[in-house]
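Final report, Chapter 2: Outcomes

The project's central promise was a pipeline that accepts a single protein chain and returns its three-dimensional structure in a standardized token representation, suitable for archiving and comparison. That pipeline is now operational. To close this chapter, we reproduce one record exactly as it appears in the project archive, with the input sequence first and the structure output second.
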Amino acid sequence: MGKSPSKLTATDIKEIQDSTYFNKKEIQQWHKDFMKDCPSGALKREEFQTIYHQFFPNGDPSKFASFVFNVFDTDNDGYISFKEFISALSVTSRGSLDEKLDWAFKLYDLDKDGYINKKEMLDIVDAIYEMVGNMIDLPTDENTAEKRVNKIFGQMDRSGRGKLNKEEFREGSKCDPWIVQALSLEIPRSNEDK
């Protein structure tokens, strides 16, 4: 922002309001909470992973949190600023299904080439399985990351190219309740300030 991150200006708030689904009061509260947790005004990868560990204590969310961090960190500077945080939170918690699916596409498209190949999807699904640990009971045709990815590609990769473009991913995901449910990546606020 070019100025002290501890205070949001009226211009900052207006810009955030115009680009998110949050109102002024919500932005100010999120900023207060963000600054309490990140006094430097920037969230580091390790801190982000710690947040995920709190919500998934029975698994190992490190890999998945790192992938999500990369999507939040839109300027690729190694930190999540408040503006990056609130923008991603807006889409993941209040965005339309298409906005969430576009965001998820960015998560899965690890090399940012505009396609999701099987290896990229396997990396993400494997990270999700590691994160949830044994918290969920999976059907036998989805009880490994490989089986899940093969099932997804069987449904979505109609062209048989071995990769999905954004439209194939978006349309295929709408038919898959597991993916739609997984898109609710909302990060709950702490109860301390409520």
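Archive annotation: The two ends are 28 Å apart (CA to CA).
This record, like all others produced under the grant, will remain available to the consortium after the project formally closes.
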